[in-house]
Structure formats: C-alpha cells, structure tokens
Amino acid sequence: MLRLTGNTKLVGVFGHPVGHTLSPPMHNAAFDALGMDWAYLAFDILPEKLEQALRSLSVLGVVGVNLTIPHKEAAAKIVDELSSSAQALQAVNTVQVKGERLLGHNTDGRGFLRSLAEAGIEPAGEKVVLLGAGGAGRAIALGLMEKKVKSLTIVDCIKDKALSLAQQAQEAGVEVEAWSAEEAGLRQKVESAALLVNATPVGMYPDVEASPVIPTGWLLPHQAVVDIIYRPARTRLLQEAEKRGCRTLNGIKMLVWQGAEAFRLWTGREAPVRVMEEALLQALQEAP
Ligand code: NAP
Predict the structure, then answer these.
(1) Which residue's alpha carbon is at the smallest distance from atom 44 of ligand 1?
(2) Does residue 186 contact residue 215 with C-beta atoms inside 8 Å?
(3) Cβ 214 vs Cβ 180: under 8 Å
C-alpha cells in the first residue's frame, strides 16, 4: 500500500486530457513491490502551460515525468538535451530531471522491441509491414531499423507521412517502401511479410468493430501479427489473425516495457515488469 512521507520522491505523467492514463497504477505497484518511497501522479497540463510545467520540475524536486498526448512533440523543443531516439523522432515520452537540466528520451521503440523479444518474435532479417506512420509508428520503425529488418513496408492513410518515414528508414540502409492503404499491390507485400504491425488506432476502444486497415483474408499462418492497441486486449485484427493461424501479440507488453524503461531511467533500478503488467491488467479490467 502506497504511503507518502516527507521524503517521498515524485514522478508522474503530463497529458491533456490525462484521466484515462494507466501509468499511475502501473508505476505505483512497482514502487510498492520494491518498498520504494516513491509516488507517480497524473497532471492535466494545458498545451500552453507545458514549458512552465516542465521548467517547474527541478524547482519542485520532481525526478521525472512521462509525456502523453498532446505533449510529446512540443516537449522535444523544450528540453535541454535529447537522447538519440528522441532526437530522431523529435518526440519525447520520458523526461529525466538532472539538476536544472531536462533530458528527453523516447522509450516507445525500445518498449516495442522488448515486447517482441519476450514473445519470441525476431524481426531481424525479416520482411515487415507497418500500418501507421504516426507517433508510435515512427518509434516502431526506428526500432525495427536498428534491428536490421530486411525490408519495411510502411502504410498510412496519408501517403506523405509514410513517405517521410520511409526516407528516414532508407538512410539507415533498410529496403523500404511507402504505401497508402488503398493501393493495388499491397496484398502481395502483406503476403510476403513475416511480421505485420498495426500502429494505427483502428480497432481501439470504443470503436472496437472498426475494420482492420488491411483485409484479414490476406494474412497467412506463418505470420506474426502485432497490434499495439491494448484496449481491447484482443482487437478485431488480432481475433481475425488468430482464426487464420497467425501468432499474435497485443500492446500490453509494449506499454509495460516502455514504462519499465522510464522506471530504470528515473530510479537506476530494474523495473519489476511482472508486477507492472499485473497492475496494468487489473486497471484495464476496472476501466469504464
Ligand atoms: P497517431 O500519431 O495519431 O498515428 C496514427 C497513424 O495511423 C496516423 O498517421 C493516422 O493517419 C494513421 N491511420 C489512421 N487510420 C488509418 C487507416 N485506416 N489506414 C492507414 N493509416 C491510418 O497515433 P499514435 O500515438 O501513433 O497511436 C496509435 C495507436 O497506438 C493508438 O491506438 C495508441 O493507443 C497505440 N499506442 C500504444 C502504445 C503501447 O505502448 N502499446 C504506445 C503508443 C501508442 P491520420 O493522421 O490521417 O489519422
């Protein structure tokens, strides 16, 4: 049970709105399990107050914060230093306060790769189709490039978004193509891939019946299908993929591992990931 004292160290999340966040139960369960006098709180911060709020962290002695919608890109322009992944993405999801300085990190890509590794899905040397070139899609693309996938087909409803991400990927020496979801020829790309990742919000609560971005009749049993949505735990895409005999993975472990990475940055300790996952699953069950 969380107890606050005169020495409690504080971390948290800035978002707007922020009431939906599942990070407080996840991190507070971790502090509790390790007997740490730390607490994690959610702060609803208006976009025009973000800089003031971030600059106040060192004054208040707050150790760090996560950033969620709509602050990730704006924070990249405010912090004093960016990690290589935050620099490449121009988006920050974790801030570390070091004295007066703010260090910006992005743990989404690493969280995604850790979740794949835990599920025994190895993307190195494979053909991958990535649906969605938004914030999460870009972090995932960067992670997959580091893993030296054989090729990356990026699909977005705005082809320009997929194109600009593809240009970045090309510089990393990965064979890469940008597609819009409606283009002919995409079926062949999907069928020849070993891994398909959904990083669009299509199928997310409350729109759980929304059609998957690609026709699921294109999926084949040898494939792994990852949907980074975690609410619901089994999206329509994952249900259909299971029916077609594919291996499937949802976004819960990615959420846990990106949080675990932030936990390590702030505390210098390895996060108790099982405890965090259990807390997250319980919070998801209790969510309205
Ligand atoms: P985002 O920045 O809005 O990006 C989503 C991208 O998908 C946008 O470029 C969007 O295009 C595109 N898209 C939407 N519908 C499409 C369709 N039918 N066909 C092709 N492309 C389509 O959102 P995000 O922050 O990356 O988040 C995406 C999803 O990932 C959300 O469901 C979020 O909850 C989840 N997520 C999970 C984790 C985790 O840890 N598990 C972490 C981050 C995000 P438009 O801009 O034109 O709509």
Answers:
(1) 136
(2) no
(3) no
Domain ranges of the chain: 9-106+253-286, 109-250
Please tell me the distance from the alpha carbon of residue 36 to that of residue 57, in angstroms, as a whole number. Answer: 20
Q: Ligand 1 pocket test: which of 94, 107, 200, 261 has the largest number of ligand atoms within 8 Å of its C-beta?
A: 200
- Please state which architecture CATH assigns to domain 9-106+253-286: 3-Layer(aba) Sandwich (3.40)
| 58, pLDDT greater than 90 | yes
In CATH terms, the superfamily for domain 109-250 is NAD(P)-binding Rossmann-like Domain (3.40.50.720)
Confidence band for 268, pLDDT divided at 50, 70 and 90: very high
Residues with CB under 6 A from ligand 1: 108, 111, 131-137, 155-158, 161, 181, 199-202, 204, 213, 228-230, 251, 254-255, 258
**Which of 195, 213, 198 minimizes the C-alpha distance to 150?**
195
Q: Could you identify the residue written with the tokens 């054989």?
A: 150
What is the average pLDDT value for the chain, to the nearest integer? 94
The pairing of beta strand 64-67 with beta strand 38-44: unpaired
Answer yes or no: same fold for 9-106+253-286 and 109-250.
yes
Any idea which residue has 């993929």 for tokens?
Answer: 241
> Which residues form the catalytic set?
72
The C-alpha R_g of the chain, in whole angstroms, comes to 19
What number of CA atoms fall less than 13 Å from residue 175's CA on the CB side? 11
Task: Give the C-alpha separation, 14 to 122, whole Å.
Answer: 33
Counting atoms of ligand 1 from 1, which one is nearest the CA of 155? 20
pLDDT exceeds 90 at position 16: yes
